[in-house]
UniProtKB/TrEMBL annotation, chains A, B:
Belongs to the PlsX family. Pathway: Lipid metabolism; phospholipid metabolism. The keyword Zinc-finger does not apply. It catalyses: a fatty acyl-[ACP] + phosphate = an acyl phosphate + holo-[ACP]. Its EC number is 2.3.1.274. This is Phosphate acyltransferase. It is found in: Cytoplasm. Catalyzes the reversible formation of acyl-phosphate (acyl-PO(4)) from acyl-[acyl-carrier-protein] (acyl-ACP). This enzyme utilizes acyl-ACP as fatty acyl donor, but not acyl-CoA. Its main location: cytoplasm. The lineage of its organism: Bacteria, Bacillati, Bacillota, Clostridia, Eubacteriales. One of its GO terms (molecular function) is phosphate:acyl-[acyl carrier protein] acyltransferase activity. The keyword Cytoplasm applies. Pfam families: FA_synthesis (PF02504). Homodimer. Probably interacts with PlsY.
Length: 343, 343
């Protein structure tokens, strides 16, 4: 399995990205990685590291796309950037099965869409992170920001694609799907949700459990939570912000709490670390951009070695599970049974 | 100041609701409270409690509206319920300035709207809780669920009303307003948001700081965050669910962590309690239903004594600040300068 990794564009690139790639190579002996980016800078990070040189290739790409670049323009014009070169490689190399980037989300999405193309029948590709839950297994939130204004059929496709994703990651035969809404009752929801609720209820290819309140998103009762990109983004970032706020207030309390608090924190450190790791969605890998002809994973911009490695291994797992083919089949079957009016 | 308190409808009613009312009476000597609900059951809770009897009145109302009742029907037909009787009192008694209930949100909103009526010029009354932030001062989230499908002008009114609320609660002269969106940049947002962004930018009566990512909602950088009721509800409940998930994983870790973890937790208990209290939005009081002709506060269904007391004192503060008059003025001024096309 060959995976392309954009070595630049993240907050800790290239160092942490390259080290994460080496960790992934160490973890899976059948894995081959192509790093795209400034050759010299990558070589500097590799110096002194021990790894299987036959499984790592570097493709020189001196430019870096940043969050300040306009995505469509960057993808068209910055052909010598680590992002665009990586996506071109993914598109042209039949052996390459996945692409991982810590780069600017907008550019990664636009680039992947333009270079790799969407699966026939998928109305809108969507960004789907795997989030931690109280029960340990992840929940797939789809969409979390790629599609801001949606139609009901888009949400049906999100459900179908994210179900395939969930099966690939957890092995669940029929993942439980919830529709993000302002209440658990069937009558709740805005206009979009009410229409989508009908489509999801009528689709025989997913296990639709009804509305999911944002409060229950991380409960572990759902394997997939479907939302338009605007609301999914709000749910995701509200969760992220709250976790950050709680840890910030906790650290502040410990710092100001004198000896007793500091000793308590020291003793509780292993537990606090477990909590932080368990609730840290970056540790789960990246967000998969579902609905394209090949696997594209967007890791967090602030991803360090461990998260980059997790994202690469997740991309490998998704490609190995033939998720693209599964989504193609699922969307086609849904269309044949009337659950699709997009194409 | 006379405040009507619905003694029933909450998870811990009437006991915790009545005790919370007594605490509020104890805290403010100029406060008078009318409790509505089953006289006998209320008397049972009062037995043995010491309080100023001249400042507490009970109005018998044997029925209880629950979440299973259809709001409009309940408000029309259950005239002997603690909720409807309370609202009727608020509407008819000129001395009564505020109403507090832990009852079913839908019924409280519908009842308050039907019985008290909206302020002239306000396109839609909205539910606005005060949430805790990292900086200590609260942020007002408006709307968080009363209006599921909104128009841009509704969001402008939410901003105006919540600014008046924020000033009343924190004393801030010009509260900083953010618009909940999927990114901080001005170009971010769905169709509704982009239109609302324009209206908010052009309104001279608020201090609009641009888009607010859900991640920054609890940062303390904003005094007011405006959203349609669907998005606001998702942001609020995602925050609530995440806080719950973190504490649940933490408790689980402590329980399974052996002696070391338990000792650590014991030493850290004061800090953990501060974190829990600081991040617990119920401790801040209730959610105010803004835009009505009198103050209506919806406390959490699971509110206990302390939260009920906080909600009553918050209602008192709001009424004392003449928030209704302030909102009336602010909406009128906004309309005169072209920022309102609702009426």
């Amino acid at each position: 399995m060959k995976i392309i990794v954009d070595a630049f564009g993240g907050d800790y690139s290239p160092e942490q990205t390259v080290l994460g790639a080496l960790d992934a190579l160490g973890a899976k002996s059948s894995l081959r990685i192509v790093l795209t980016g400034d050759e010299e800078k990558i070589a500097e990070v590799l110096k002194g590291q021990s790894y299987d040189k036959t499984r790592l290739e570097i493709v020189h790409a001196p430019a870096v796309v940043t969050g300040n670049d306009v995505p469509t323009e960057a993808v068209r014009k910055m052909t010598d950037s680590s992002l665009v070169k990586g996506l071109d490689l993914l598109a042209s190399d039949d052996e390459a099965q996945a692409f991982v980037s810590t780069g600017a989300t907008g550019a990664v999405l636009v680039g992947a869409y333009m270079k790799i193309g969407r699966i026939k029948g998928v109305s809108r590709p969507a960004l789907a992170p795997a989030l931690p839950t109280v029960k340990g297994k992840p929940v797939i939130l789809c969409d979390c920001g790629a599609n801001i204004d949606c139609k009901p059929v888009n949400l049906l496709h999100f459900a179908i694609m994210a179900s395939a994703f969930s099966s690939a990651v957890t092995g669940a035969a029929k993942p439980v799907v919830g529709l993000l809404s302002n209440g658990a009752e069937a009558k709740k929801g805005n206009e979009l949700n009410k229409e989508a609720f009908k489509l999801l209820s009528e689709c025989p290819h997913i296990d639709f459990a009804g509305n999911c309140e944002a409060r229950d998103m991380l409960s572990g009762d759902f394997d997939v939570v479907v939302a338009d990109g605007f609301n999914g983004n709000i749910a995701l970032k509200s969760a992220e912000g709250t976790a950050g706020a709680i840890f910030s207030v906790l650290m502040d309390g410990i710092n100001k709490g004198g000896l007793r608090a500091k000793l308590g924190a020291l003793l509780l450190r292993p537990v606090l670390r477990v909590v932080k790791n368990k609730m840290d969605y970056n540790a789960q890998g990246g967000a998969c951009f579902l609905g394209l002809n090949k696997v594209v994973v967007k890791a967090h911009g602030a991803a360090k070695r461990k998260s980059v490695c997790a994202a690469i291994l997740q991309a490998r797992k998704l490609a190995k599970s033939e998720i693209t083919e599964k989504i193609r089949m699922a969307v086609r079957t849904a269309a044949e049974t009337g659950g699709n009016d997009a194409d």
